[in-house]
């Protein structure tokens, strides 16, 4: 049995302890920075037409179905009744609602009181620009007939109420990859149904 010199063992434990200490300090620093740098937390996203019809909703905070319909009713009434020259920020139930009208649609996002409204306006504009790129001058009908794609685009931009992707090119690339996957799946499904139909004859 070969025994290691005592100095080597002590040096290894010392290195391990120092490494653990540095790792612990680094994690503490990360937690402190995360507490200082607060990201925007979006409570929910609503797309409302001028007629008060809801075209898209995404909820990032827990609301019951009854509360959701009440929120939609309240906000659509409040936002649709505002004059075009009024401010795009509305204080509501201890939150701020940031909205912007594009053509016949109102894009609304609800944020906390101390969040930055201008940043949320930029997120709304970012979402609209990506929709425009994808649909080619997006309109309300595009969102009605392709709502699943609008949800997919929104999910690429926002996750858990926070901005995930700010690059339009990256989002466009991911959407194109998703579309090609869907097309491949459709082709495989149609070829499978053809094979099954021939086998059952």
Tell me the layout of helices and strands.
Elements: H1 6-36, E1 42-49, E2 54-59, H2 65-80, E3 89-92, E4 95-102, E5 105-112, H3 117-135, H4 140-145, H5 147-157, E6 158-159, E7 162-163, H6 168-200
Antiparallel strand pairs: 1-2, 1-5, 3-4, 4-5, 6-7
Helix pairs in contact: 3-6
From the 3D coordinates, which CATH architecture of the largest domain would you assign?
2-Layer Sandwich
Low-confidence stretches: none
Strand order of the largest sheet: 2-1-5-4-3
What's the pLDDT, averaged over the residues? 85
Give the number of DSSP strands.
7
Give the proportion of residues in helices.
Answer: 55-70%
Annotation field: number of helices: 6
Sketch the topology as an H/E string, one letter per element: HEEHEEEHHHEEH
The CATH class label of the largest domain is Alpha Beta
- How would a textbook summarize the main sheet? 5 strands, antiparallel
User: Beta-strand level of the residues, as a percent range?
Assistant: 15-25%
Structural class: alpha+beta
Radius of gyration using CA atoms only: 25 Å
Shape: flat
- CATH topology of the largest domain: the name is Beta-Lactamase
Distance between the termini: 77 Å
How many individual domains? Answer: 2
